[in-house]
Amino acid sequence: MNYGHKLEFGTFITPKSATPDHVVALAKRSEDLGYTLVSFQDHPYQPALLDTWTLLSWVAGKTERIQIAPNVLNLPLRPPIMIAHAAASLDLLSNGRVSLGLGAGAFWDPVVPHLEPHFRVIRFDQRGIGATSTDCRKPSRRSSMIEIDEKIAANSRISTSEPGK
């Protein structure tokens, strides 16, 4: 069956901090073999893994053609405006080779301690009935919503007015 686009392949490399040269060598080998994309998992709370954005930047500088992407970038631990700026900057520096994989994260236990000072989790059951929880260590995987604390939101608003007004 023809879906109207060419079939492309990529690699998913575990960014082990114990072997950073090997991780970069695998990315370069992926390019040499003609793969379209190289991606790296993002677990910023995991010291055994390299920082994803730093690694993406390094790999972009060491390769010429292959698309690079986080797989998937952990949104609850990264401010969206920072992700947008970093992605746009790296995309310009790499001649348009950045793709984004974004997600809320599946491993809540290591993520929640980083969120607790700033967020409150509202969990919904199957009937859509919500309950606010200050103990958000086990949010519902089916349907969870993270509500930003007003104080944090007020401090991170982006002004759309002209400077000086």
Tally of distinct domains? 2
The gross shape turns out to be: globular
As an assembly, this protein is single chain
Strand content: 15-25%
Fold and architecture overview:
This protein has 165 residues and is of the alpha/beta class. Helices cover 32% and strands 19% of the residues. The strands form 3 sheets. A 3-stranded parallel β-sheet has the order 1-2-3, covered by helices on one side. A 3-stranded antiparallel β-sheet has the order 7-6-8. The longest helix is centred in the middle third of the chain and has 14 residues, at 80-93. The radius of gyration is 19 Å and the shape is globular. The N and C termini lie far apart (58 Å). The relative contact order is 0.12.
Short account of what is shown:
The chain has 165 residues and is α/β, with parallel strands linked by helices.
How is the topology of this model organized?
Blueprint: E1 10-13, H1 20-32, E2 37-40, H2 52-62, E3 67-70, E4 73-74, H3 80-93, E5 102-103, H4 108-115, E6 119-124, E7 130-133, E8 144-148, H5 150-155
Parallel strand pairs: 1-2, 2-3, 4-5
Antiparallel strand pairs: 6-7, 6-8
